[in-house]
UniProtKB/TrEMBL annotation:
It is found in: Cell membrane. This is Probable multidrug resistance protein NorM. Its main location: membrane. It is a multi-pass membrane protein. It comes from Anaeromicropila herbilytica. The lineage of its organism: Bacteria, Bacillati, Bacillota, Clostridia, Lachnospirales.
Amino acid sequence: MATYVKNMTTGSEIRHIAYFALPLFVGNLFQQVYNFTNSIIVGKFIDKDALAAVGATSSITFLFYSLCLGLATGAGIIASHHFGAGRIEELKKSIINSAYVTILFGIIISIISILVARDVLQLLNTPDAIIEDSTKYMRISCAGTVAVAAYNWIASELRALGDSRTPLIFLIFSCILNVILDLFFILVLHMGICGAALSTVLSQGVSAGISILYALKNNSYFRFTKEHFLFDRTMFIQSIKIGMPIAAQSAMIAVSMVALQRVVNGFGENVVAAYTATMRIEQLVQQPFQSLNSAISNFAGQNAGARKEDRIIRGYHKCVLLVAGIAFFMFAIFMIFGHNIVGLFVNDAEVIRIGTNALRVSCCFYIFLGLIHITRGLLNGVGDTNYAMINGLAEVIGRVGFSSILIHIPIVGIWAVWGTTALTWMLTAFASIIRYRKRKWKLV
């Protein structure tokens, strides 16, 4: 019997979604605690330029990581459909062939990202004071793209079977290992920013390896025969066909963030540091929304395989209410404690002032961010991955378009950075809801 496997095609919709989302949220929270810790260690024990150097690379590394994440998400969608329909042999073949796709693209992306690191950072107008550290950090981080791809693949496959607990266990292990290595490399070996990057790569690789070994030993759906390992051209192409639009969506979102990062870099080190701090905080804010995204995606995937459209719709409507409550709670927290939270990252008063005011702008728009996540999750889950391209395009248009306009309005100034993000969330949320209401995803 497969460990923690859960069939979500019967029973309470919101209970399944919430039960599935909770381990994801806890895991994502641990991941963000690591990100917080990493940023605090870098900002406090090295200096603010080191923190800015990490931030200057974040949008680029997200671009390369997101390509692999998109392929892993696509693999999970295929697996959830087979699982919901009870097609066990097809499920096992899809797991193996999606692994071939993930490994291949992970290696290719690792090589490319290392080669172009410095050129891309120069193209983004990365300040001279931090470009050397930024290049080192990016090259080491991107060298581990294949490890990131492997972890996201195994986690996505397990979640497709309704198992969100096992990925949580190994994510927590990865985060704890990451923090320990961070402290060791930076405080003991004095490796500086290179130590921070190396700790991330090593912890991801170890976590991916033990996750796969655990699944092979304990999950019955990972019990393969020689026939399952045969290359299946149809399955291989299907994994690419489903995964590439999602990967392209993530890539376009990343490109839009790269474009915004270029605007941020133009305002100097203080704004880069403040932006880095607020990005770390907003990554934490997104965790409950991202957890619901994955939960409703897998819920919708299984029910799409079982041809239960009414359950998908009811689950989505209940998720909208959850998102509204979470957004209001986050709004209150950042309005009251924004200054204290930003102060965790840096000691510089000007950076804290900028970051605090930026958070108070962004938190007014969290409802739109939540709607993006749950609607995107549902559409991906039912197989409407073509919309992923439209969704990504909306983010590109928003971040490039709004930033181009706002930076030329004198009264806006540096707030063009965070105003662009807020307006982009609005635009993308409306595009997502329109797609949902048009019902192009309707099950036949």
